[in-house]
UniProtKB/TrEMBL annotation:
Membrane topology: Multi-pass membrane protein
Superkingdom as given in the UniProt entry: Bacteria
Family matches, as CDD domains: TM_PBP2
Gene3D superfamilies named in the record: MetI-like
Residues spanning the membrane: 20-39, 60-78, 84-104, 148-174, 186-205
Localisation per UniProt entry: Cell membrane
Keywords carried by this UniProt record: Amino-acid transport, Cell membrane, Membrane, Transmembrane, Transmembrane helix, Transport
UniProt-recorded name of the protein: Amino acid ABC transporter permease
Main location: membrane
SUPFAM superfamilies named among the record's database cross-references: MetI-like
Taxonomy of the source species: Bacteria, Bacillati, Actinomycetota, Actinomycetes, Micrococcales
Species of the source: Microbacterium aquilitoris
Entries under NCBIfam families matching the protein: HEQRo_perm_3TM
Family named by the database record: Belongs to the binding-protein-dependent transport system permease family. HisMQ subfamily.
Alphabetical list of InterPro entries matching this protein: AA_ABC_transptr_permease_3TM, ArtM/GltK/GlnP/TcyL/YhdX-like, MetI-like, MetI-like_sf
Length: 218
């Protein structure tokens, strides 16, 4: 326990950094992913094309390269001086934009489980495409995609460690930082693993709670 109790300042800051990246990136991914997922099933060809191009381009690009783009390309283009806050904001954006592709595909799979007749009936009543999606289709789609959606967010939680390679403090920074303080690197890695397992178990508990609350009666 000494590696924890002797470095509480670091662990607190690292855990806070991981949670900021997770919740910030998750919120962005959820909002953008829902929009892109709706575009993927839109009756408008241009919307479908843009959504498909976004998913195929970003999803097939390694996350590290997405981080490189935000860390080394955008600051000069936007004439922004790099700082701690800017690095965190770019890391959140990189994680959110990357994860949004998986959210979009998960949402699209959920939309495809909703009977077409329900959407057609809603359109016959005079609802617009946006109203059909928000009031009829998406509420049902989300109930069917809770497990795969939670898997996406579990992957996002683990992907936050990539930000450590771009000078953003999080649990992925533990080995480098604590080795400089003389801590055993293997012990540090084991503790990082334990913390991530605990966080994933917490997410899994949230998944089961949502499933029990929103499950569809068979």
């Amino acid at each position: 326990m000494g590696v924890i109790t002797d470095n509480l300042d670091f662990w607190g800051e690292a855990l806070r950094g991981t949670l900021v990246l997770f919740f910030g990136g998750g919120l962005l991914a959820l909002i953008l992913g829902i929009i892109v997922g709706a575009m993927r099933v839109s009756p408008v060809p241009i919307a479908r094309a843009v959504g498909t191009a976004y998913v195929n381009t970003i999803r097939n690009t390694p996350l590290t390269l997405v981080f490189f783009g935000f860390a080394f390309t955008l600051p000069p283009l936007l004439d922004i001086r790099s700082s701690g806050g800017v690095q965190v904001a770019f890391a959140v954006a990189a994680l959110g934009i990357y994860t949004a592709t998986y959210v979009a595909e998960t949402v699209r799979s959920g939309i495809n489980t909703v009977p077409v007749g329900q959407a057609e009936a809603a359109r016959a009543l005079g609802l617009t495409f946006g109203q059909v999606m928000s009031l009829v289709v998406l509420p049902q789609a989300f109930r069917s995609v809770i497990p795969p959606m939670m898997s996406v967010f579990i992957a996002l939680l683990k992907n936050t460690t990539v930000a450590a390679g771009f000078s953003v403090m999080n649990l992925g920074s533990a080995r480098d930082w604590l080795s400089e303080r003389g801590e055993n690197q293997l012990v540090v890695i084991i503790w990082v693993m334990v913390i991530f397992v605990a966080l994933v178990l917490l997410l899994s508990w949230g998944q089961r709670s949502l499933e029990n609350r929103w499950k569809v009666a068979r």
